[in-house]
Every structure is written in structure tokens, then in C-alpha cells.
């Protein structure tokens, strides 16, 4: 049974108004004074629970209608390369290459991955990620409410809120040498989106307290994150700094002065970089696991939102908050689904998400080269992170709109911490131990500079409890500049992509 925190049931003092500074601590609006039957006995049929799944975020979840043309395209679309002649395809296949002289892609008898059909599948799959992610987190958080489990809540935040990035990364690492280069720009793009885009929009949409500034009511967690963000960014920049300052000059010296074969030098440099990257990933993951173990042992309440890095950060939670805030009647926001329905729904959503991420990896090149003119850097650094992180980003902006920019900032910072401390290390270690793929933490120099500059700017902005509206605009303008540079598309993501 959930702990009763606030006798009032709403989480707000009676005289709370628009001009008053919001309280730093906020209880979950859906966990106060629930009868045990509401939490453990949902007496609704399966059809009624399915309809209830569309109560929050109806417009977003209505995008699921794209499943129909998506499945029809997969089942009935013609296979093969529709953009080239049969003679050119046969000649390229005989040479073990693609039509344009690139390495021959993997064969997919069940999936059309090339031409206009492949591009259409990419865009449908990309849009479908949003409602599937939203439903997945909603079902899992309903289980968290039902069991009042802090450890389950942490698992939802760490793994399933970033399931799209993890699945896309795993498939990209195992798909081809070219797609291996997509992983690091994607994760760096997610970090930049939260640091600049989400925080900037949240500040711009939050209500002003004195006409010029936004009162963050900053919590101790957010204040700690502002300084810890610079430290985490610096730690993950170190492999790139090592590559520029130590590895590259040493390689040039060995080739020119010692006349060592360039291939042997390259292999040695790769081994050194992999050792540094994997050691860093192990250290970071161990430290974060110890921290989470201490959090679980502390038995802190999962739904103390503004001062807990593992608090709910989903769109459904934000919509529940708004409904409770603006409703004149008591809103029942306890466990809304039976255990069997929530588990089955989450499993189905996860299965669909796995298929969508695989389709995205297989059809990305068709979408960027044959269907649209979007450059690959823009697709990886901006477009994919925007869709993968849409659930948390929308929740952050919505919380800012209803007058809680402190929770909005906490959601954005929590996502950054999870990407740095969990997603990046896990991707490196899974590539090493499971997929046997040499993924290292040597990032693109432009993206490294962007992350480091963004961390410095955000830390400077967030150290004060009051943030001027102009500073939110500056964060968003900086992110817009990065988007424009990615739209130019005249820079390589990594050297291996064109080797």
C-alpha cells in the first residue's frame, strides 16, 4: 500500500496561487488516500481497459493508426532495389558491392529496405515510436503505482524510458560497419536535446514571476546536476582529448620516424582507445550502480518529484498532474489497469518497439538518400533524438506550462544523467561482451565541443533559482544553431563510414 503523504489529497496548500513561489517538494497527485481496491482490484474488462489507455494523450496515441499501412507495406511491398536497373544490381552483386559502389547491404527477404518503399517504412516507423513509447511507459508506471516499488520505478526510468535509444544502438552496432557510426551521434544528440532544447523551451513556456524571470524553485537535485553535468561531460570528453593530444601525434611519429606500417599503428591505436573506453564505461557503471543501491536502501518515496532523480518523468504523469491541478472534482489517479493487462500491454509495446527500431536501422539510408534530402548528421543528431525523447521532453514542457519549471528541469537533468551514466556505458559494454563490436568513446570533435560548451552554458544558467526568460531563449538559439549546422550535412560522422 502506498504511503499517505498529504492529507489534503491535492499536493498543494489551500492558498497556492500563480504569484506565489511553488513549493520545492511535490507529492504525486495520484498517490494520496487511495482505497486498496483502487490500487489492487481494477474491475474493468479488457476492452474497457484498452479504451482507458487512450484517456491521456489521445492525439498522440491516435498515431497508432499508422500501424495499418505500416504492416501492409511490410507484407505486400515488392522486395529488392527499386531505384536501380536489374543489370546494375546484378553487376554490383557479383562484385560484392551495392549499386553505388558501397558495400553490399544485408539481404532482408521479409523487409523492403531500399528505394521509396524503404523510405516510407522509415518515416512510418519513426512516427510510431512516439505512441508506442508513451503506452509502454504508462503501463509500466501503472505497475510502479500498484506495487509502490522504488526499484521498479528506477528500472523504468533507466531502461524503458530510453529503450528506443538502446534498441536502435544495439541494432545499429550489429547491422553493418556503416551503421556502427550512427550510435554515438544519436546519443550525443539526445544529450544536446535535453541540455539545450528541452530546458530552453521549458524556461520560455513557464509563467513569469516578475515580468522578466522564471522562478525555478530549484531543488537540491537540480542544483547538484547543474555542476555535476560539467563533470560528467568532461569525463566522457577525455577519450576524445586523448585521441587528439596523445594518440594522433604518436601515430604520426611512428609512421614518419620509426617507419612502422600504418596498418599496424592504426590497430594499436584502436586497441588503446577501446581499452580506455571500456575501462571508463565499467567505472561509470559501477559507480552509478552503487549510487542506485544506496537510493533503494534509503526507501525514499518514488513520487516526491522535484527532489528525486528517479521520479516519474512520463507524459502521462504530466497530464495526470495537470488534470489534478485544474479539476474542481476529486480525480482518481491510482492504478488504472489490472496487473495482467499492464504486463501484457507493456510486453506487446516493447515487442513492437523492437521491430520499429530494427526497421529504422535497416531503412535509414533509404530515407536520407532516396526519399528526402535530409542530411545524415541532421537525422542522427536532431531528428531521431527528438522522436525518441519526445515522451520526456513533452512532459518537461507541460510541467513548465502549469507552473512547475523546477520539475521540468529535474526531468531534463535526469534524462541527461541516465544517458551519461547508464545508456552510454551499457552500449559500450554490450557491444564488447555480447555483440563483439569495437565501439569506443572517441566522439566527433564538433559534437564534443557542442556538448562541452552546452554543459558550461547550462550550468551557468541553472545555478540561480531565478532564470531570465532571455536565458531560455539563448539556450534554444544555441540548439537552433547546432540544428542549422547539422542541416548543412557536409561533415563526416566518422572515418569508418567512408572506408
UniProtKB/TrEMBL annotation:
- Single annotated GO MF: calcium:proton antiporter activity
Q: How does it sit in the membrane?
A: Multi-pass membrane protein
GO cellular component terms, semicolon-separated = endomembrane system; vacuolar membrane
- Known InterPro entries for this protein? CaH_exchang, NaCa_Exmemb, NCX_ion-bd_dom_sf
Q: Which UniProt keywords apply?
A: Ion transport, Membrane, Transmembrane, Transmembrane helix, Transport
Q: What is the name of this protein?
A: Sodium/calcium exchanger membrane region domain-containing protein
Biological process annotations from GO:
intracellular calcium ion homeostasis
TM ranges: 60-77, 120-140, 152-171, 191-209, 221-242, 275-293, 341-366, 378-399, 411-435, 441-463, 475-493
Identify the taxonomic lineage of the organism of origin. Eukaryota, Discoba, Euglenozoa, Kinetoplastea, Metakinetoplastina
Q: Tell me where in this chain the Sodium/calcium exchanger membrane region domain is found.
A: 120-293, 345-487
User: What organism is listed for this UniProt entry?
Assistant: Leptomonas pyrrhocoris (Firebug parasite)
The UniProt record lists the keyword Chaperone: no
- A Pfam family assignment: Na_Ca_ex
Q: Where is this region: Disordered?
A: 1-30
Q: Where is the signal peptide?
A: none
| Location(s), subcellular | Endomembrane system
Amino acid at each position: 500500500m502506498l504511503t499517505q503523504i498529504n492529507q489534503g489529497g491535492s499536493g498543494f496548500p489551500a492558498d497556492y496561487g500563480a504569484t506565489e513561489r511553488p513549493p520545492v517538494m511535490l507529492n504525486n497527485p495520484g498517490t494520496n488516500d487511495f482505497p486498496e481496491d483502487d490500487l489492487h482490484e481494477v474491475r474493468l474488462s479488457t476492452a474497457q481497459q484498452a479504451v482507458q489507455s487512450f484517456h491521456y494523450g489521445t492525439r498522440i496515441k491516435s498515431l497508432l493508426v499508422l500501424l495499418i499501412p505500416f504492416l501492409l507495406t511490410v507484407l505486400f511491398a515488392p522486395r529488392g532495389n527499386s531505384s536501380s536497373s536489374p543489370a546494375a544490381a546484378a553487376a554490383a552483386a557479383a562484385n560484392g558491392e551495392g549499386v553505388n559502389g558501397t558495400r553490399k547491404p544485408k539481404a532482408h527477404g521479409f523487409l523492403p529496405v531500399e528505394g521509396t518503399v524503404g523510405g516510407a517504412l522509415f518515416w512510418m516507423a519513426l512516427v510510431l515510436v512516439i505512441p508506442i513509447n508513451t503506452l509502454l511507459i504508462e503501463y509500466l508506471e501503472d505497475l510502479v503505482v500498484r506495487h509502490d516499488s522504488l526499484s521498479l520505478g528506477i528500472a523504468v526510468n533507466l531502461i524503458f524510458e530510453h529503450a528506443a535509444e538502446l534498441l536502435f544502438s544495439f541494432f545499429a552496432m550489429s547491422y553493418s560497419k556503416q551503421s556502427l557510426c550512427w550510435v554515438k551521434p544519436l546519443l550525443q544528440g539526445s544529450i544536446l536535446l535535453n541540455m539545450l532544447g528541452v530546458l530552453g523551451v521549458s524556461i520560455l513556456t513557464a509563467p513569469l514571476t516578475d515580468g522578466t524571470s522564471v522562478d525555478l524553485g530549484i531543488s537540491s537535485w537540480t542544483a547538484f546536476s547543474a555542476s555535476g553535468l560539467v563533470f560528467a561531460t568532461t569525463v566522457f570528453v577525455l577519450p576524445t582529448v586523448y585521441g587528439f593530444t596523445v594518440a594522433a601525434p604518436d601515430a604520426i611519429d611512428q609512421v614518419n620516424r620509426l617507419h612502422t606500417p600504418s596498418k599496424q599503428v592504426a590497430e594499436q591505436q584502436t586497441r588503446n582507445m577501446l581499452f580506455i573506453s571500456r575501462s571508463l564505461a565499467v567505472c561509470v557503471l559501477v559507480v552509478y550502480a552503487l549510487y542506485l543501491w544506496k537510493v533503494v536502501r534509503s526507501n525514499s518515496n518514488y513520487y516526491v518529484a522535484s527532489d528525486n532523480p528517479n521520479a516519474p518523468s512520463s507524459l502521462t504523469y504530466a497530464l495526470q498532474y495537470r488534470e489534478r491541478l485544474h479539476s474542481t472534482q476529486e480525480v482518481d489517479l491510482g492504478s488504472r489497469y489490472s496487473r495482467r493487462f499492464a504486463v501484457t500491454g507493456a510486453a506487446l509495446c516493447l515487442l513492437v518497439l523492437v521491430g520499429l527500431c530494427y526497421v529504422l536501422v535497416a531503412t535509414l539510408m533509404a530515407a536520407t538518400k532516396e526519399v528526402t534530402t535530409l542530411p545524415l548528421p541532421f537525422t542522427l543528431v536532431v531528428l531521431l533524438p527528438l522522436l525518441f525523447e519526445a515522451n520526456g521532453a513533452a512532459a518537461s514542457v507541460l510541467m513548465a506550462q502549469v507552473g512547475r519549471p523546477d520539475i521540468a528541469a529535474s526531468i531534463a537533468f535526469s534524462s541527461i544523467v541516465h544517458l551519461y551514466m547508464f545508456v552510454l556505458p551499457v552500449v559500450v559494454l554490450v557491444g564488447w561482451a555480447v555483440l563483439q563490436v569495437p565501439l569506443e568513446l572517441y566522439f566527433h570533435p564538433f559534437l564534443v565541443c557542442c556538448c562541452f560548451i552546452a554543459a558550461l552554458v547550462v550550468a551557468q544558467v541553472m545555478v540561480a533559482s531565478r532564470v531570465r526568460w532571455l536565458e531560455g531563449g539563448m539556450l534554444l538559439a544555441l540548439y537552433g544553431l547546432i540544428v542549422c549546422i547539422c542541416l548543412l550535412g557536409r561533415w563526416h560522422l566518422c572515418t569508418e563510414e567512408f572506408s
